[in-house]
Design brief:
The chain has 13 helices and no strands. Helix 1 crosses helix 3 and helix 9 runs antiparallel to helix 10. The longest helix has 31 residues. The protein starts with a helix and ends with a helix. The model has no long low-confidence stretch (mean pLDDT 78). InterPro entries: DNA-bd_dom_put_sf, MerR-type_HTH_dom, MerR_fam. This is MerR family transcriptional regulator. GO terms for molecular function: DNA binding; DNA-binding transcription factor activity.
Length: 244
């Protein structure tokens, strides 16, 4: 193979191949009588290895060390490792495309990407303009990102949000936006919210609850005083019932 052919085969430019010659990553093959370099299969494998290692973020000095370790290995072994690297890259691309599809399908106001379990939960959530519902989606996204949620927990949350009565509870919480922290509607609403939560969801909560450590105060600060009182009581109920 000529330099242009081997460069095209491994997805590099001829300039990159010449640079790898210059820095000593790829030995220059002998030239034919016509003056052209003649590259073989091992050269192609070596170049593919260099490309893969640099794509993984290794510097050229680090690549040189890896190639030195490869020098005594059989060609078939190096090829198998390259194939495994490509398979991992292919799987990662499929995962990124799946996450992108989930992101494109998310309800308005939700930022991602999110786990498949949370994506399934958000897909079945009723469309609503409720500010309180939007905050709940944001909180679930935080739980998801922190790894605190599980597929079982999100599935049970799906049962909760599918309840038609939940929309009315959100409306009542929204109505407390201008209310003081001692509003008489707080206790009844907190009780009704706790009553709406399936027992199976309480049982599935881990011992430390679903409140991400250090975030409770920050989350409550997003609500008006009366709303924060309701949400705080619900958070405490999750922690207490989860421990029970």
């Amino acid at each position: 193979m000529r330099i242009g052919e081997i460069a095209a085969l491994v997805g590099l430019t001829t300039r990159a191949v010449r640079h790898y010659h210059h820095v000593g990553l790829l030995p220059e093959p002998e030239r034919r009588p016509n003056g052209y370099r003649a590259y073989g299969v091992r050269d192609a494998v070596l170049l593919a290895r260099v490309r893969r290692l640099t794509e993984l973020g290794l510097g050229l000095d680090e690549v040189r060390d890896v190639l030195a370790d490869d020098a005594g290995r059989e060609l078939a072994e190096v090829l198998e490792e390259l194939d495994a690297d490509l398979a991992r890259q292919e799987a990662a691309i499929r995962e990124r495309r799946y996450r992108l599809g989930v992101l494109l399908a998310e309800p308005p106001g939700v930022t991602g990407p999110v786990s498949p379990a949370l994506a399934a939960l958000l897909a079945q959530a009723p469309r609503t303009d409720s500010p309180s519902a939007a905050k709940d989606r944001e909180y679930l996204t935080l739980v998801d990102a922190a790894g605190t949620g599980s597929q079982e927990i999100f599935a049970l949350f799906g049962t909760l949000i599918a309840d038609p009565a939940v929309a009315g509870l959100y409306e009542r919480l929204d109505a407390l936006a201008e209310a003081p922290a001692d509003d008489p509607r707080i206790a009844p609403l907190a009780a009704d919210l706790m009553a709406a939560v399936p027992e199976e969801l309480f049982a599935a909560i881990p011992e430390d609850g679903v409140v991400v450590t250090g975030l409770k105060e920050a989350l409550l600060a997003e609500y008006a005083p009366a709303q924060a009182e309701v949400v705080g009581r619900l958070m405490e109920a999750f922690v207490e019932r989860g421990r029970g």
